[in-house]
Each structure stands twice: as structure tokens, then as C-alpha cells.
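Job type: complex structure
Entries:
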Amino acid sequence: MAESRPAARPLSPHLQIYRWSWTMAMSIAHRVTGTALYGGTLLIALWLIAAASGPAAYGTAQWIAGSILGKLVLFGYTFVLLHHMVGGLRHFVWDLGHGYEPQTRMNLAKYSVVVSGGLTLLVWLIALTR
Amino acid sequence: MLSNSSMRTPLGRVRGLGSAKSGTGHFWLQRVTAVANVALTLAFLCIVISLIGKPHAAAVARLSNPIVAILMLLFTVSGAVHMRLGMQVIIEDYVQHEVLKILAVMANTFFAIAVGAACAFALLKISFGG
């Protein structure tokens, strides 16, 4: 770490001091969804292993995925995946040096929920009607 | 460690490697895999939707298609690299104890490689293993 840290500076205010804002909420959501996807990769691995193992294992995986609980998990997984993706696109905008005006950054954060929610519904509409 | 006695200038300390001894490599790889993951995630969703309700033989046939198999391999490998980097940042932010932190970062690497290898092996077995 830095070798020249000055002593006894006041601590910056922590989470419970701040008023909640969209950018703060979406920043936290990006971490939470990232963590959820980290665990969710196990589901992808198990699904692929089931497919590689044979019809019986794949049938079990399909039965679990098709159950009500399975569908709920997959719906949540879809939203979390798309929310993290849209959040990433927001970060690209900021990485490129755009969208830092107060209103713009709030809108970027706010509408990332709308966009990821809309995309999730679109994916499931396609999935359920095909 | 936190003294002001170092003869090295701040620029000398950060030039090239910085305190993490890896420069901006972590940051940049996180962004490169993020860009790749946008396209690969959309491809993954299309592939999964196209497999809904398909019996094992049809699913294996679809996953053995070279384009589908390569997209799935890229998605799982790029995803594993990206999630390893992201979780490492979370660990470094929240785990204060130095030994625990190193063990957690190491376990994170093992988990990401294990999940990536499991997905890759399953995909290759589906394509070549019969």
C-alpha cells in the first residue's frame, strides 16, 4: 500500500450516512448480481455435465429446470444476468468519459433497471411462446 | 510500511507495476472480458432458448454444432475469467485479514478454473465424446 499515508485523517462517511440514490443502488446491485452470477455458473456447469453424461442425467436436469422452483430460479438468473450486462454497458459509457452530468448519471442508473427488466420479460416471452 | 522514509518518489513507486505489482492488467482484462461477454451472453441466451424442451439427442446435436460449441466455450471461459477478476476485487475490498485474504483470492482462482474446466470438458465431451 501507499507508504506515505498521513495519520489520523477523519473517516469518510459510510453506507448508512448516505441518502440512497439510483447510482448508489445500481452500483451495489452490480456487485450483488455479479456475486449471484458467480454462484450461478455452477448451474451452467451442472447443466452441461448432465448433457455430457447422457439422456438420464439430462432428463433429470430438464425436470428440475422445468419445475416451478426451477423456473423461478431461471427467471431470477435471467434478470440478474441481464441486469449485470446492462450495468456493464453503463460502466462502458462512464469508462469512455461520458454521462457524468448529475441528471444523466441518475437516468443511466434508473433506466438500466427498466431496460434489464424489459429484456428479461422479452427473453421469457420468446422462451414461453416458441 | 506506512512511513515517509522511503527515498522513492510516488511516481517511481507506481510506474510500470504499482503497488499491486501488475499495473492496469487486472482492470483492462476485466473490461476486455466484459466487452466479449456482452456478445457471448446474448449468444448464450439464444442457444439456451433454442434448446428448451428438446430431448437429449437433439440438445447434444445442437451443442455439437461447431459454431454453437465454440460460442459456448468462449462464453464459459470468458465468463470464468471475468468472474474471477470481479470476485477478487470484492474479496480485496471486504476481507481485512491478510492471510484470509490471500487464501480467499487463491480459492477464488481455484473455483473459477474448476468451473471453467468443468464447462469446457463437458462441452468437448458433448462434441467429440459421443
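Summary: The domain at 22-129 of chain A is CATH 1.20.1300.10 (3 helical TM bundles of succinate and fumarate reductases). Chain A has four helices and no strands.
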